[in-house]
Every structure is written in structure tokens, then in C-alpha cells.
Amino acid sequence: MADTYANYKELAAVEVKGVDYDIHYHKVNGSKTIIFTPHGGGIEPGTSELVKAVATSFYNWYEFDGMKPSGNSILHITSTHFDEPIALKMVGESLYSMALHGYNDTSMKHTNVGGLDYNLRDRVIKELKTEGFSAGVARDGLSGTEPKNITNRTSRGKGVQLEISTLQRQAFFINADTSRANRINTTDVFKKYVKALQKAMG
């Protein structure tokens, strides 16, 4: 489905910051790594919670937080067009980036890992598999290999992108409930997933 907004400027002209969406970020002195989601909050539920848990106090993090009671998919700007200024600046100042996304699949628990940072991509897959998760190299539309994809707009020109299935993200929360109110209630599966990503980031 085509995006409603072609870029952040179009979105910001219609949607109300602090009501429909918000932008949250944290910078760690000396960190050259960013963990982020351009489709956080209710857009691709579970990605915001992962970003903050993986980054903790070690890495810079950023989330574009969809806050609507429903219909947050309207706030989705595809990664090659995502140009929110704070995100662009933080990624551009980073050596390493990890973008966390969700894709619609309720049939299997799986993570597609892509991006142009092939070494980090392969480490992520290895660590996820070590923790018992299904993961593989992303193909076709989920590959994240476009140079304009925001995860690849680091100072090195490459980053990684994780596309996490709906079923896998549901497993991160008690009763598989990904509503905003319940997303504070994470499972042991969530903790194992976070551990795998932290190990991959080294």
C-alpha cells in the first residue's frame, strides 16, 4: 500500500506533533552507534520498546512514535523517503546503525535482516539463531539495501535493517497484546531477543 505522505514535511503539515505522533531520542556521549525506528509506537508495534531496551545507556537511540488511538499506518513513511531532520542528523553522525521495523506476517515468527552493513547483518542473524529465533537474510522489498534507506545514511554509508514479523513481535508482550497500554509488559522472549541484538552490536 502506498504511503499517505511522501516525506516528513508533508506529514508534519497535516498531523499534530505531540498528539498524532512524537519524536523521542537520546544521545550518549561518545557513542557512534544508533538504534532507531522510523515506524515506532503504533505504526509497527514493538519496535519502540526494542529500540530502548537494546540501546539502554550504551547507544544513541531514536523513535518516531505513532500515537493515534488507531490508524497509525497513515504515519508510515517508507525508509528511502524518511527524512525527519533529527533522525537524518543522528544517523549521519553515526558509524553504525540498526533500524528496527515490523512486517505483516501472522503465520510465522521470523526476522528478515538486511541493509548494506553485511558484517553486522550476519552477526545479527547468528546471534538471533543462537538464542533460538528464526532469522535470515532479507530479500526483495525488505532487503534494505538502497543507499537512500535511512539506515544506510551513516558516515560509512551502510547500516542494518531488521524486519520482524507480526507474530514474533506479539511474542514480546504478555498475552500477545501489542496495544500501547500493554507494551510495558514484556516477556522472556523479548529479553532473549534484546540480548541477541546487544551481543551482535558488540
TrEMBL record:
> What segment(s) does the record annotate as region Disordered?
137-157
Database matches in InterPro entries: Gamma_PGA_hydro, Gamma_PGA_hydro_sf
Pfam families documented for this protein: Gamma_PGA_hydro
Q: Which domain of life is it from?
A: Bacteria
Q: What is this protein called?
A: Replication protein
- Lineage, opening ranks: Bacteria, Bacillati, Bacillota, Bacilli, Bacillales
